[in-house]
Amino acid sequence: MENKKYYITTAIAYTSGKPHIGNTYEIVLADAIARFKRLEGYDVYFQTGTDEHGEKIELKAKECGKTPKQFVDDVASEIKKIWDIMDTSYDKFVRTTDEHHEKIVQKIFQKMYDKGDIYLGKYKGLYCTPCESFLTESQLVDGKCPDCGREVSMASEEAYFFKLSKYQEKLEKFLEENSNFLEPEARRNEMINNFVKPGLQDLCVSRTSFTWGIPVPFDKKHVIYVWLDALTNYITNIGYDPDGSNEEFKKWWPCDLHLIGKDIVRFHSIYWPIFLWSLDLELPKQIFGHPWLLSNNDKIGKSRGNAIYADDLVNKYGVDAVRYYVLHEIPFANDGNLTYELLEERYNSDLANILGNLVNRTISMNKKYFDNVISNSDVKDMIDDDLINTVLSAKEKVEKNMDELKISDAIDNVFEIFRRSNKYIDETCPWTLYKEGNIERLKKVIYNLLESIRIGAVLLSPFLPRTSNEIFKQLNTDQTDLKSIETFGNLKVGITLNDPKPLFMRLEKND
Ligand code: ME8
Hints:
There is one protein chain. This protein is α/β, with parallel strands linked by helices. The chain has helices spanning 21-39, 55-63, 68-85, 99-115, 168-177, 185-196, 226-231, 233-236, 247-252, 265-278, 310-317, 319-329, 340-370, 382-403, 407-428, 430-435, 439-460, 465-475; strands spanning 5-10, 13-14, 43-51, 92-95, 118-128, 133-135, 153-162, 182-183, 203-204, 206-207, 215-216, 219-224, 257-261, 287-290, 293-295, 336-338. The chain has a domain at 339-485: Isoleucyl-tRNA Synthetase, Domain 1 (Orthogonal Bundle), CATH 1.10.730.10. Strands 1, 2, 3, 4, 8, 13 and 14 form a seven-stranded parallel beta sheet that branches. A four-stranded antiparallel beta sheet has the order 6-5-7-9.
């Protein structure tokens, strides 16, 4: 029997500050995929969380006059609150400061060391003595320390290194042979040609310049490199243990999809596979490095003053409008752009007009003509076939696009149903049928519209769950699964609908 489990993760967000709408995009994207898989009948496990160690966070905490733990507790709860505001249906919110995670990361480090993949060496680099920090060439300002402005000198200190070089050939071969492992395709080529082929340097996996991290178990003055700590969240939280993993781990690993942003593809497609091989574990099935959301075509950043936050947008437009915008406006491989004007344009044209009006008009007509009761008849017309074909063919198209992670295209497939239904109203002119007393035909027309809306709402549910539920409520239907949309006509006759209620109020220019 086919294994119907699906394990999906997002990147774990740095607890360095409140996440902006760009970071929030990822959790919404993962949520849409997770919900769709559940709709398809998969047993889904959806994990997200926060990445809480490291020097940057230690410094931020100090700036705020908090201990690192207080600081990450506050930011992690802020992040979780935003994930909840966005109606994301994660199964577990993990934190790298969880005691269990820390314990397993130490065991992982030990196992890699025992295997001979980690060794003690010397880290050489530019060093600022007063600041006690190693710097890279690019961090220097006029050749001097960016923090205190003093001269830097070459220095070296003890550090643990991971033998990435040992796995170089294996990784190159793996990436070449598994074209689906890393999407989009362009990223895979970039990794192979720019990083793997030129040669992998051994990776420094411990630090002594700060303390906010997980101590190396056998050498406590070192803390474990934050990416080794962070990447392993995908296994430590589902029961991996170097001394023997539990049944949960055997059920969920390997992960089906790591959803991450384009900037951290290198860590996930180079370090992560190698760490897993070192632990003798299977690799995840797929990594998708999604594009970014820009604000006014510029990178979003607090220091740039253009940060937009999900909670502000939700307060103004509602959660589904924000979900719709980010899911629809960021295509598979190109960055998407967010401005208030574009969001309002989309809101009015797609949500208020195409979807909201259709549902409101149809349910209002049913109320006016049939006293809210679902009716039907045998009076068909050729014109019905085209509507029904469009509506029934949407499921397959959505499934195909979702399989290929083309979420924006899948939403277009769903809206095709609503667009076609609006056209059907223009073609059939129900008000004329009513005036002419052609009631039997009118019954059929309104039934076709209500059933098309129901089918559309089922397919819409992973993307706009609230809106979809509201439509089901107004239609008073419990026919909401994928099976129920394989054929046309499952909406039951005789049921009384609830009163129509607008789904999206049109925004006026000065709102
Ligand atoms: O990278 N648009 O955390 P993070 C879309 N802790 N996605 C964006 C974005 C934007 N404008 N800006 C950031 C980290 N992201 C690490 C991950 S995983 C083991 C460790 C995405 O808080 C970014 O690409 O900086 C990443 O996938 C996620 O937000 C969290 O970013």
